[in-house]
């Protein structure tokens, strides 16, 4: 099932793009939020498993995918992204949702638990928690502001394999698909990022990492699952243990040997994830 491409506006007029798969309107829809430098197409596999059963919406943040690029770098601050998510939910008629958030998208889910707790019917945090491992901060910092301008998709695959070796992609075709979701051809015939590389400047202006412990604790009443790549550069084992202590009913699913971040299509992840999502009406 191909998704409908929806265009909505944030409160300041910036255009935001979303993919929408139709489904049973009586069930709580899924709202899928990707990581930095990623787009809603990362959720195509999950959406195809749940489309028809319920609506699935995957949002492109400002400066990502088909959403508009901001005139000012300060527009890329995380608090503006959270406001955009709420604006998109209003425009797309999503008063309630199960939020599936990968990396930065999981941070957005935690923030929504504070800003709009009535929105969250459930949440899936994919390889992210209230404390980000410094290795992850360094990884995304070196990647987000870089535009290599690849001549071929093979060059892009080689680069991604080098800088993100622990992504759990099973074969060459999967890496190629991942590269195609990461870079797109431009007028110069080269492949460029599907995000505004100035986002890196906004990240640097934001300073050090935040302690999101109090924000995570706002999720205590909400049914939630944590997906963890056991070799994650972003989510350390001690943070996972602390999350389980803070929220004893948190469902934990681990992918051994995987780094940041599981695609949510791995059989070891997809089966328990889909059971969790199906349990929420």
TrEMBL record:
Pfam families: Abhydrolase_6. The keyword Magnesium does not apply. Residues 31-268 form the AB hydrolase-1 domain. Keywords: Hydrolase. Transmembrane segments: none annotated. One of its GO terms (molecular function) is hydrolase activity. This is Alpha/beta fold hydrolase. The lineage of its organism: Bacteria, Pseudomonadati, Pseudomonadota, Alphaproteobacteria, Acetobacterales.
């Amino acid at each position: 099932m191909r998704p409908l491409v929806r265009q909505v506006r944030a409160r300041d007029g910036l255009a935001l793009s979303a993919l929408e798969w139709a489904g049973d309107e009586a069930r709580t829809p899924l709202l899928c939020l990707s990581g930095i430098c990623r787009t809603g197409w990362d959720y195509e596999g999950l959406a195809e498993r749940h489309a028809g059963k319920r609506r699935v919406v995957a949002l492109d943040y400002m400066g990502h995918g088909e959403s508009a690029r901001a005139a000012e770098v300060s527009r890329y601050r995380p608090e503006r992204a959270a406001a955009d998510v709420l604006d998109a939910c209003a425009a797309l008629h999503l008063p309630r949702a199960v939020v599936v958030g990968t990396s930065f998208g999981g941070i957005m889910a935690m923030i929504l638990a504070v800003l709009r707790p009535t929105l969250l019917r459930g949440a899936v945090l994919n390889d992210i928690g209230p404390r980000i491992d410094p290795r992850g901060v360094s990884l995304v910092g070196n990647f987000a502001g870089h535009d290599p301008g690849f001549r071929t998709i093979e060059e892009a695959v080689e680069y991604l394999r080098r800088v993100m070796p622990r992504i759990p992609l099973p074969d060459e075709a999967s890496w190629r698909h991942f590269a195609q979701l990461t870079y797109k051809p431009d007028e110069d015939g080269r492949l460029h990022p599907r995000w505004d590389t100035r986002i890196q400047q906004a990240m640097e202006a934001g300073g050090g990492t935040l302690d999101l412990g109090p924000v995570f604790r706002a999720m205590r009443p909400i049914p939630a699952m944590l997906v963890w790549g056991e070799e994650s550069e972003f989510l350390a084992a001690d943070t996972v243990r602390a999350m389980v202590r803070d929220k004893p009913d948190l469902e934990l699913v681990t992918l051994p040997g995987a780094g940041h971040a599981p695609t949510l299509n791995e059989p070891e992840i997809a089966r328990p994830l889909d059971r969790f999502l199906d349990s929420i009406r």
